Amino acid sequence: MRPRLLELQQFLSFEDATVDLSAVSGLVLLSGEHRGSDVGADSNGAGKSALIDGLTWALYGKLARPKHRAEDVVRRHAGEGTRVRLVFSDALGREVEVRRHRKHPRFKDALHLEIDGTDARGSSAAETQKRIDALVGMGHDTFIGSVLYTQHPMRGRFAELSDPEKKELLDAILGVEVLGRARDLGKDELRGAAAAAAELEARALSFDEQISWLERQRDDHGERAAGWEASRGRRREGLVLRVTMSRGELDALGSEPTAEAADLAGPTRARLEAEQALASAESDARSGDRALEGRIIEARTAQARATALLQELRQEASRFDSLGDACPICTQSIDPSVRTAHAEHLANRMAAPARALLAARADLKVAEIERQALQTLAGATRSALLQDVAEARRAEEGARLEASRRESAARERAAATRRLDDLAGELAALDREENAFTALLSRTECELEDKVTARAALADEIALATAHAERLAFWDRGFGPRGLRSHLLDAVLPLLNARALHYTDLLTGGTLEVGFSTVVEKDDGVEDRFTITVRGPSGVDSYALLSGGERQRCNLIINLALQDLVASRATRPLPIAIYDEAFEGLDRTGVEAAMRVLCEAARDKDLVLVVTHQDALRDQFTHELRVVCDRGRSFVEHVS
Length: 640
Fold this sequence. Notes:
Strand content: 15-25%
CATH class of the domain at 1-137 and 572-640: Alpha Beta
Order of helices and strands: EEEHEEEEHHEHHHHHHEEHEHEEE
CATH architecture of the domain at 1-137 and 572-640: 3-Layer(aba) Sandwich
Helix content: 55-70%
């Protein structure tokens, strides 16, 4: 992939800029300048890194710098309309055009791809991006790691990282993060397989417990079936003995008595007649007594009414006598003739109640005498009739006892016959009775056989699940730090050491030695740890004891070696390299060494873009592209 043209619109600090990369080749200096209100500021912030970001964003939709939002590429003053167009030649010499948009009024966030003027987009943005990666020959991470040489915040201090941090970065460089993701996915499957195997083991344990329980049930049902048979034998012997005894008892009772019924009709009829006569006499006595009782009540009622009326008239006479000679209301004197007439009137009124009182008393006396006589006669009659009833009942009871004796004999024989029949029926039923424990024993044996068969099938499932879990555990170890990843580190170790040796020769003339190792020797053996061995010109063998300049060169050697490792992973090499402030802070000797690195890169690449503040390097470049920032707007000038 050889970039030819880059157009930037509303991208970061660029309002509208065009960079003709086909007009430059070899070592190209990418410098910066502030003009207008920004005069006096150095080149930092002019937009040099933003230009590199435009190249990477056009290709991958991501910036070269880490950790940014998608909206961050939109120029802040515009707020929309971001468009980046990149034209490059692919490995087959075809012209490829990529246009990428963000918050564009017309194209929104669209991604366009054309090859020799023909639309080459996929069915989706993701599919189109895969086609761009294939045309470039590498993805974003490999591009950043192999084309863009920079003091990466992690790679710049790689020697100071912990062992897990070093391995994590090497995983990213080698592109084997997929092994970690595969291990994570495998862990989920491994946990599921282990859980499934554990569940099967639990089911097997449950089956074992059920089988053990069924075996105990089978033995118990067998013992109960045998015990039931023995019990039935004993019960049958008892029933046969009782049948024999019952037959003897029936024989002892003799033949069945004749059915001559005792004569109960006469005694019963005599008893009924006597009881009827008694009842009739008692009824007559009660009727007469009720009639006399009514007369007595009527006499007493008449007596009470007459007594009450006489008492009332006497009270009225007493009140009249107490009036005196004058009326208490009108105070006029009472005529004696009036008093005499009133007294005679009261006396006449009292005569009738007095006669009624005497008549009532006489009727009451007569009724009481008649009632006493009636009760005396009724008592004598009742006593005689009771004696007749008692004699009739005794005669009836005697006849009934004789009949009962005969019936009892018949019932006793009938009961003996029924007992014999019942015993014969029990004996027949006992002979027909089935052993319930035999059926339980048969059912338990069938269930036990099914459980044993299912347990055998479950054992096969357990074997398969265990084998599956063991395979997953194998790949878990294989995808782990001590598996394929460790093997890959060992495989790339010669390349890293060779490139480190190459760059130590270029940058230090061999006075500084830098090497990589995957194991550390210890008293009890070796430990798997990625380490960097350093030896300085003064015999110092520790990175921490190097001087500041030596540590910077050491970091640059490590960084360049790691970059070459990334480049070796690409499907095809790119004729472009970008060094973004990779040589800052070096002394004069370091600058001379940096130029040897750049000259070597220029021999292998068609285009080498370098961002640097080292003035000593400026005269070494064949071309210069200057990024100018004027009042917050950046554009690119082709200086030479």
